[in-house]
Amino acid sequence: MERGKMAELESLETAAEHERILREIESTDTACIGPTLRSVYDGEEHGRFMEKLEARIRNHDREIEKMCNFHYQGFVDSITELLKVRGEAQKLKNQVTDTNRKLQNEGKELIVAMEELKQCRLQQRNISATVDKLTLCLPVLEMYSKLREQMKSKRHYPALKTLEHLEHTYLPQVSHYRFCKIMVDNIPKLREEIKEVSMSDLKDFLESIRKHSDKIGETAMKQAQQQRNLDNIVSQHPRISGGKKSKKEACASSELEVKNTSPMSEQDSGILDVEDEDEDEEVPGAQDLVDFSPVYRCLHIYSVLGARETFENYYRKQRRKQARLVLQPPSNMHETLDGYRKYFNQIVGFFVVEDHILHTTQGLVNRAYIDELWEMALSKTIAALRTHSSYCSDPSLVLDLKNLIVLFADTLQGYGFPVNQLFDMLLEIQDQYSETLLKKWSGVFRNILDSDNYSPIPVTNEDVYKKIVGQFPFQDAELEKQPFPKKFPFSEFVPKVYNQIKEFIYACLKFSEDLHLSSTEVDDMIRKSTNLLLTRTLSNCLQNVIKRKNVGLTELVQIIINTTHLEKSCKFLEEFITNITNVLPETVHTTKLYGTTTFKDARHAAEEEIYTNLNQKIDQFLQLADYDWMAMEPGSKASDYLVDLIGFLRSTFAVFTHLPGKVAQTACMSACKHLSTSLMQLLLEAEVRQLTLGALQQFNLDVEECEQFARSGPVPGFQGDTLQLAFIDLRQLLDLFIQWDWSTYLADYGQPTCKYLRVNPTTALVLLEKMKDTSRKNNVFAQFRKNERDKQKLIDTVAKQLRSLINSHHS
């Protein structure tokens, strides 16, 4: 029972739950029905729920059917009324259709007329608008056409102005048209085209002036030369005008107007065609040779385009490159003057163009830029000139180069460029010029000295005499009184050398011209160069002649005479330099000529060479000596070789008549001393181990011949027996042995009044030993003869005493 109640209870709860779910389904939106249905399936009574659900559906269907049955009659009535209205509506439609057809038929003509009126009004409006637009567009098209025409005719600067006007004035008024947009898009291209074309013209101009720089420079240097010639002419006459024009003004005033008759291609190149002018005609101005319009056009165009700085940088960069090319000298420039001239012409041409650009444009180049270029050019030019001028060995070429450098400096100075460094470098080249002159004159002096006959100049008539006196300052009252023919004391090389020294001075003076040096500086330069010529070049040439192997005594004597006269002429050279420089020798710091020292040194060298030569001749004669040192008896006369030697000395000293007295006396004394010394050495030489009294007596005859020669006075001026004293050592030694006066020698030795004061005990001992050995070997039986034994004892005793003297002297 209980189970039955419980089951009944559960079924009631389930039915209530199902009822609640159905109510939720009926009242809940379909989008939220999911959870409700889920609760059905969560339970186990979904079968019952389905039955409940179907029963609920059947109830709702019955209610719908009841409602429809209730309203059905009204619906039928409505349909009936609607069918009646449809008939009336069809009639109304037919009436409207008929009315519309009639209206359409009546309005067709009006519509056509209105359409025609509309088209006319539209055309009229379009024409009016077109005229207005064309009024605005035509000036734009005309300006654009003008622009194209200017571009075609290469009038780029006006074209740029037209383009600017077109862009800022006309195109903004018609900017909404498509062709205007094309024009606007094309404007940058046109500007770029103008820039490129103008830059191309500038490049052609730069290339052309690079090629023609030498022509421009040549013209400028011709102008400077003409102005300098004009200044020289004016300076020789009294000045009328007060001031002096600058070179640049003078150059400008002398320029000729050049007519523009060259072809268009030449105009564009920047160089106008100019005929070569005759020397006596004025040279056209350097600026007249160049058409600078490409530069001006390009500058204006870039200024308008706002790219002036770009243009300036490009122009300066290109000109710097060209400057480096211009300043690079050709490797063979030093070979000819034309090489230097072309180099200078290019540099001058470059800076003439830059100077003109500086003064005709505002800021394209400035003074700082020009100065920088000039500093670079100056340093490179000076370095190149130093290098290439060092190769020049021809003084004429160096002199021509100097004149060209002066003209180069004067030309650029006329354009305002500082050129002091060039003149400083010319002073360096002056040293090199002096060296080349010295080398040249060294050859000249060698030729003069080699071709000279070293004989006094013979004179046969008055004309020849005056000619030589005119060439060399020589005065001799005694010679003038002598009748013709007569002889000058000097040889031909004296006037020749003197004249060549003057020619050298003239050559030095030529270099100093136009260097803006004072008279004192010119005088100092000439004197220093002349001193080098005298002390180095001429001195070396004279020394070489004196030291030649084949030089004879006669030539040496003549050289001494010649240098004596040249030494006397030095004061005339001083006067000559003073006359051409107008600087008195007394002026402070004036350099003195060292010619006197040069000729004295040469003369002394010649004198020494005479002494040496005489001694060599004496030695040659002594080599012919052939003494029989074992002879028992002397000959009847002096040896033949010595007689010949004395004859040679007499003839030689006879030639010394024109030499200064001291020279002849010194030579004679030197020869006698050398002869005496050589004879002593001959007597004492180690190879002569034995000698007899007879040989000594023969030797005594030769010494007497020498003393006779000394007494005869071969050279005047010796007092008393001065010359004989050269043989005093030999004389006392021979007298000691021949007279056998040992007791006197040993007793008086060391006393000032000793008869044999000049006899050295060592020399006497050597000679005594040679006689002692001879006595022993040649007299085998001498020991059996009393006299011979006594003599041998005496020799031994004397030898012992001599050794004692020698030992005491050393101690």
TrEMBL record:
UniProt lists the gene as LOC101872548
User: PANTHER family recorded for this chain?
Assistant: EXOCYST COMPLEX COMPONENT 6B (PTHR12702:SF3), SEC15 (PTHR12702)
Where are the membrane-spanning stretches? none
Question: Residue spans with biased composition (Polar residues)?
Answer: 259-268
Q: Which residues form the Exocyst complex component EXOC6/Sec15 N-terminal domain?
A: 52-221
Query: Which BP terms from GO are recorded?
Result: Golgi to plasma membrane transport; intracellular protein transport; vesicle tethering involved in exocytosis
Please identify the protein, giving its name as recorded: Exocyst complex component
Coiled-coil region(s): 50-109
What are the UniProt keywords, alphabetically? Coiled coil, Exocytosis, Transport
Has the keyword Oxidoreductase been applied to this entry?
no
Highest taxon in the source lineage:
Eukaryota
The Exocyst complex subunit EXOC6/Sec15 C-terminal domain, residue ranges: 421-770
Q: Which family does it belong to?
A: Belongs to the SEC15 family.
Record bears the keyword Transport: yes
